[in-house]
Amino acid sequence: MLVLITYDVNTENTAGKKRLRQVAKQCVNYGQRVQNSVFECVMDTAKCRQVKAILEDIIDKEKDSLRFYYLGDNYKNKVEHIGAKQSYDVKGLLLY
Questions:
Q1: I need a surface site. Which of 3, 34, 37, 74 has the fewest CB within 10 A?
Q2: With 50 as the cut, is the pLDDT of residue 96 above it?
Q3: Is 16 exposed, middle or buried (0-12, 13-18, 19+ CB in 10 A)?
């Protein structure tokens, strides 16, 4: 299923900046960054629970937030892209 993960991390201090880097690093491991704090991830339910637990352990729940949007398997008609960044095939090969 396609899961959209978004986050907002308070970076007013050094600890917040560290949390932001940690959250971004974890999200890169599981999906494709489509905007600064937005990742599209194709994963099953078990992997999603695992990623959610990892990210929950990183953030400060009093200052930061995570949002998970579950778009399911039939997501192609639910995602529309307009603008400069090229769209990509989320199930395709990712090269770095």
A1: 74
A2: no
A3: middle
